[in-house]
Design brief:
It is built from 21 helices and 13 strands. By secondary structure, the chain is of the alpha/beta class. The chain folds into 2 domains: about 170 residues, 3-Layer(aba) Sandwich (D-Maltodextrin-Binding Protein, domain 2), CATH 3.40.190.10; about 210 residues, Periplasmic binding protein-like II (D-Maltodextrin-Binding Protein, domain 2), CATH 3.40.190. The strands form 4 sheets. Strands 2-1-3-12-6 form a 5-stranded mixed beta sheet. Strands 8-9-7-10 form a 4-stranded mixed beta sheet. β4 and β5 form a beta hairpin. α3 runs antiparallel to α16 and α20 packs antiparallel against α21. The radius of gyration is 25 Å and the shape is globular.
C-alpha cells in the first residue's frame, strides 16, 4: 500500500487547526443538534454513493508526485462520486500482491505491467477487460495516438490496453567526452548505414582511457540494454518465431543461430578483448558512485526508453545526446517498451474504472505525465513538446533519434511472451560464463538453446498449448 508521507509543518498546522476547531464546536454545541442544511444532506448522500477505484502502480520517485499531486486531486474534483485508492508496490512484489488482492476478491481496477509479468500473461489468465465497448459507447477519439503503438495491445481487433508511454532503446552519449577527444558525435539517423558496429567500436576505442584502472578509467561504452534479446536484434536476429509475439508461446528458439552467437560474442569482446566497456565487477564499483553515465565515467550508454527520463536534467552537469544503435548486421532493430493502462475484467465498478482510465490517457494527463516524469508521449499532438525538453539537443535531433528508434524497433518480448521472467532467468543464468569472460559464446549458446527450448515446452504444457 502507499507509504504514509511525513506531514509538512503547514499540513500539520492545517490539520491540527481543523481538529481544534471541530473540538471547540463540539464543546459549545447545544444538547439537541440543529438539523443539517439541505446542502449538507445532499453532500452526505453523494458521499454515500461514491465508489472506490483501485489504481495499482509501481514504486517510482518520478511518478508518485504526478499520481498523488496531479492526477488524483484533479480527477476526484471532476468526478466527486469516484474515489481513487492508490496502491504502490515494488517491482519484486508486484505480481504477488496483485494475486493476493484478486484472491481476496478485491482486484486492482487499473494497472500496467510494472512487475515480472507482461501484458500477455494477464490476457492469457483472463484478467484484462476488453475496452472496445467503452471506447465505442463514448466515441472515445483514438486518432491522436501513434497508430502503430495503439495497435500493440490490440487482440483479435479489440483493445485490451491503451498506451501511456512508448520508446525504443537508444545510445546516449556524453558530448563533453566526445568534444575533448575531438571525435564526431554518433548519428541520430537510424538509416545511416555507415554507423556499423565496427564504426561504433572505433569510436569507443578512441574515447576509452585507463581501462585497467577502474578507479580512474573512462570507458567508451556501458551496456544498459535489456533484455538480452537486444543484442541479437542489433544483428537482425530474433530469438523466437514471429508468430510467438502474437500467441505468447514460442514453439522454438534461435539462441544458437549464427547471428545470435556473433552478437553475444561481440558484447563479450567489448569488455574482455577491446576493454572499451567495464567488466561486471568494474560496473558494480562504478555504480556505487551513481549511474556511470551521470558521473562521466562512460562516453556512451545503450539503454531502453527510460534513459530519456533517467537522464532528464543532466544538462546541468554536461551536455548529452541520444543516437541510433549501431548496425551489427542488416535488419538491425531496437527493443521498444510500451506501457498500457489495463482495465480489470474482475472490476466491481467497470464504468467508474473506465472513466478513470479514460482520464489517464487523455491529453491533459499525458502532457502532465510527460512534463513531470520526462516520459515520451504516445499522442502525436504532444511530440513537439517532448522534443523540446532536452536543451542539449535540438528538437530535430531529438525527433530523429526518438522516432527512428520506434520505426526501427519491435515491442519487447517481456510484454508479449507468457512467463517471460522465467524465460529470461534461464537465458541469463546460461550466459553468465560468457559475460564473465570465462567461455566464448559459440561454446555456451548451443547448450543454452537446448535449456531454453525445454523451458518453452514446459510453459506450453502448463497452459495447454
Amino acid at each position: 500500500m502507499m507509504d504514509r508521507k511525513r506531514l509538512s509543518r503547514r499540513e500539520f498546522l492545517r490539520w491540527t487547526g481543523i481538529v481544534g476547531a471541530g473540538a471547540l464546536a463540539a464543546a459549545c454545541a447545544p444538547a439537541a443538534p440543529a438539523p443539517e442544511a439541505p446542502a449538507a444532506e445532499e453532500a452526505k448522500e453523494a458521499a454515500k454513493e461514491a465508489v472506490t477505484v483501485t489504481w495499482y502502480v509501481r514504486t517510482s520517485p518520478e511518478e508518485q508526485p504526478w499520481e498523488q499531486e496531479i492526477v488524483i486531486p484533479h480527477f476526484e474534483e471532476q468526478n466527486p462520486n469516484i474515489k481513487i485508492n492508490l496502491v504502490i508496490v515494488p517491482w519484486d512484489d508486484f505480481d504477488t500482491k496483485m494475486q493476493a488482492m484478486i484472491a481476496a476478491g478485491d482486484p486492482p481496477d487499473i494497472w500496467s505491467h510494472w512487475g515480472p509479468s507482461g501484458f500477455q500473461d494477464y490476457v492469457i489468465r483472463g484478467l484484462v477487460a476488453d475496452q472496445t465497448p467503452f471506447i465505442e459507447r463514448d466515441n472515445f477519439d483514438l486518432s491522436d495516438f501513434i497508430p502503430e503503438v495503439l495497435d500493440i495491445y490490440k487482440v483479435d481487433g479489440k483493445y485490451y490496453g491503451l498506451p501511456i508511454l512508448t520508446g525504443a532503446s537508444y545510445l546516449f552519449y556524453n558530448k563533453k567526452i566526445f568534444d575533448d577527444a575531438g571525435v564526431p558525435y554518433p548519428p541520430t539517423d537510424w538509416n545511416d548505414e555507415s554507423w556499423t558496429f565496427e564504426a561504433f567500436l572505433d569510436v569507443a576505442q578512441k574515447l576509452t582511457k585507463d581501462p585497467d584502472d577502474p578507479t580512474k578509467a573512462i570507458y567508451g561504452f556501458h551496456d544498459g540494454t535489456w533484455p538480452i534479446d537486444a543484442w541479437p536484434w542489433m544483428w537482425g536476429q530474433d530469438l523466437y518465431p514471429e508468430e510467438a509475439y502474437k500467441t505468447g508461446f514460442p514453439t522454438e528458439a534461435y539462441l544458437d543461430s549464427e547471428k545470435a552467437i556473433e552478437a553475444i560474442q561481440a558484447r563479450q569482446d567489448l569488455t574482455f578483448k577491446y576493454k572499451v566497456a567495464p567488466s561486471p565487477a568494474a560496473t558494480e564499483a562504478l555504480s556505487a558512485g551513481g549511474n556511470p553515465f551521470h558521473t562521466g565515467r562512460v562516453a556512451m550508454q545503450a539503454i531502453g526508453v527510460w534513459g530519456w527520463w533517467v537522464h532528464k536534467g543532466l544538462e546541468e552537469q554536461f551536455d548529452f545526446g541520444a543516437a541510433a544503435l549501431p548496425i551489427g548486421a542488416p535488419g538491425r532493430k531496437a527493443v521498444i517498451f510500451t506501457d498500457p493502462w489495463m482495465l480489470s475484467s474482475k472490476s466491481k465498478h467497470p464504468d467508474e474504472a473506465w472513466e478513470f482510465l479514460k482520464f489517464l490517457v487523455g491529453k491533459d494527463s499525458q502532457k502532465a505525465y510527460m512534463e513531470a516524469v520526462g516520459a515520451p508521449p504516445v499522442r502525436k499532438s504532444l511530440q513537439a513538446d517532448f522534443f523540446n525538453l532536452y536543451p542539449s539537443m535540438t528538437p530535430d535531433e531529438a525527433k530523429e533519434a526518438f522516432l527512428g528508434g520506434v520505426e526501427h524497433g519491435s515491442e519487447s518480448p517481456n510484454h508479449l511472451l507468457v512467463r517471460f521472467d522465467q524465460i529470461n532467468n534461464v537465458i541469463s543464468s546460461a550466459l553468465d560464463p560468457v559475460f564473465l569472460g570465462e567461455k566464448p559464446a559459440a561454446e555456451v549458446l548451443p547448450e543454452a538453446d537446448k535449456e531454453l527450448e525445454k523451458t518453452l515446452a514446459q510453459i506450453r504444457r502448463e497452459f495447454g498449448q
